[in-house]
Amino acid sequence: MLKLLGIAISLLVQFTAQDTYLYVDNKEEASTSFDADGGKEMFFVNTNASTYTLEDVPSWCKVEDKSATGFMLVCEENKDLYRSCTILVKAGGKTVPLNVSQEGAKGEDLNSTGWMLKMHRLLEHVTKTYSNPSGEPDRYKGELNPAGKRHGMGIYSWSNETYYLGEYVGGARSGMGVYIIGGNGFHFSTCEDCMIYVGGYKSGKASGNGACYDKYGHTLYRGPFDSGFPSSTYPGNGNYADYKFEWIPIQGGDYFGETYKGTPNGYGIVFHADGSAYFGFFNDGKPVSGIDIPYSGGRVRKN
């Protein structure tokens, strides 16, 4: 009899764990970003478990007004550099990561985030190299056509820490792409203070709609380009505060790309712990289309 009772209890526990749901702001992974002044934000928790817990809350944040349906996250002023963390919201065997980031007093210099080290590792094994007057070869990892020219999607690295991630046609940048200047003292030649361009290309030049970001990831311009030049007023005068290019921790790796209100939206790259990566377009934190990029010399695959 006791044995049967134990089995029944075990089955009940398993069923309950499988049947538990947990959402933070109606999401299975939530994100938020604070400026250097700090602030507070309310998060709503939806679960059928009897209670939930918060783990890995950093010293620079505290939780207030915790109830069965939500909590207030308070972030203190940051007088130092950019910082980030992932708070784990747990209930009934379920976990929802809450990714929190905060700008430094002067904003985060993107070159200090470590993305270049990740990119170097990703390009340890490449598809093809090209000679460069500096003596350091340019490197390419991506798709080729039968003639051996860059065609499709891939990543190109110049010896001066400049990168292009995106589409090629017959060897020329054509389609959608991300152009990143990692070396200090450089900027996108036709746009002052622009370190990152995201947008359309035609015959190797910026064309169509695009966006420019400075070294802190702040938006300088969103609008049309023609033959490599912005065809509207630069810098732009729109309200771009919610649009940034950021380095943020997400489930499965580190994301370096466009965000809207702290969530991946637009083009970006996710660096995985094993050295591989995913590059593509994101919508509300979820990948929509792109390519899987292996760490080794394996073939770049469309996702």
Brief synopsis:
With 303 residues, the chain is mainly β. The protein has 2 domains: 2-102, Immunoglobulin-like, CATH 2.60.40.10; 110-302, no CATH class.
Layout of SSEs?
Elements: H1 2-19, E1 22-24, E2 30-34, E3 39-47, E4 53-55, E5 61-67, E6 70-75, E7 83-91, E8 94-102, H2 115-122, E9 128-130, E10 138-144, E11 150-157, E12 162-169, E13 172-181, E14 196-202, E15 205-213, E16 219-226, E17 229-230, E18 243-250, E19 253-260, E20 263-271, E21 277-283, E22 286-293, E23 301-302
Structure, described:
The protein folds into two domains: 101 residues, Immunoglobulins (Immunoglobulin-like, Sandwich), CATH 2.60.40.10; 193 residues, no CATH class. It is mostly beta strands. The protein has a nine-stranded antiparallel beta sheet, with no helix packed on it.
